């Protein structure tokens, strides 16, 4: 579920946006003034929330972005493998969630983590 739709000129540093179905966070934005024909341009540098890919692109200021709904939840680690098995601390459901290697090295069983649910995709962001 998309939270809202914004124009490119309304995006700020830290804003989450959807590009080609993938969630990104805006790291830098430069907005040029309107030109002879009346359109401003936005140069946006964004980093993928799930994939950590960097993307740089230039678009007209009137183009629109979808802002994804990001739910931040807490969970307890049950087991660690290729994916980390966690139990949500509110609903008590068991989930298999991917995790980066640097966070996985800090985890052990029964530790608490924060995971993000972004448009149905889940990822462990940090140890609590």
Write the layout of secondary structure elements.
Elements (H helix, E strand, L loop, with lengths): L1 E6 L8 E4 L2 E10 L9 E8 L5 E7 L3 E5 L1 E11 L3 E5 L5 E4 L3 H6 L5 E7 L2 E7 L1
Antiparallel strand pairs: 1-6, 2-3, 3-4, 4-5, 7-8, 7-10, 8-9, 10-11
Question: Would you kindly provide a written description of the structure presented here, covering whatever features stand out?
Answer:
The chain is mainly β and 128 residues long. A five-stranded antiparallel β-sheet has the order 9-8-7-10-11. The protein has a four-stranded antiparallel β-sheet with strand order 2-3-4-5, with no helix packed on it. A two-stranded antiparallel ribbon has the order 1-6. The chain has one helix at residues 101-106; strands spanning 2-7, 16-19, 22-31, 41-48, 54-60, 64-68, 70-80, 84-88, 94-97, 112-118, 121-127.
Give a quick summary of the entry.
The chain is mostly beta strands and 128 residues long. 5% of the residues lie in helices and 58% in strands.
């Amino acid at each position: 579920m998309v939270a809202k739709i914004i124009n490119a000129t309304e995006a700020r540093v830290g804003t989450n946006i959807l590009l080609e179905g993938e969630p990104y966070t805006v790291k830098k934005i430069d907005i040029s003034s309107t030109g002879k024909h009346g359109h401003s341009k936005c140069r946006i540098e964004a980093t993928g929330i799930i994939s950590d890919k960097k993307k740089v692109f230039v678009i007209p200021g009137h183009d629109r972005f979808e802002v994804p709904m990001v739910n931040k939840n807490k969970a307890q680690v049950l087991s660690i493998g290729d994916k980390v098995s966690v139990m949500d601390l509110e609903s008590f459901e068991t989930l298999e969630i991917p995790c980066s290697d640097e966070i996985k090295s800090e985890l052990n069983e029964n530790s608490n983590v924060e995971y993000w649910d972004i448009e149905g995709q889940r990822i462990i962001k940090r140890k609590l």
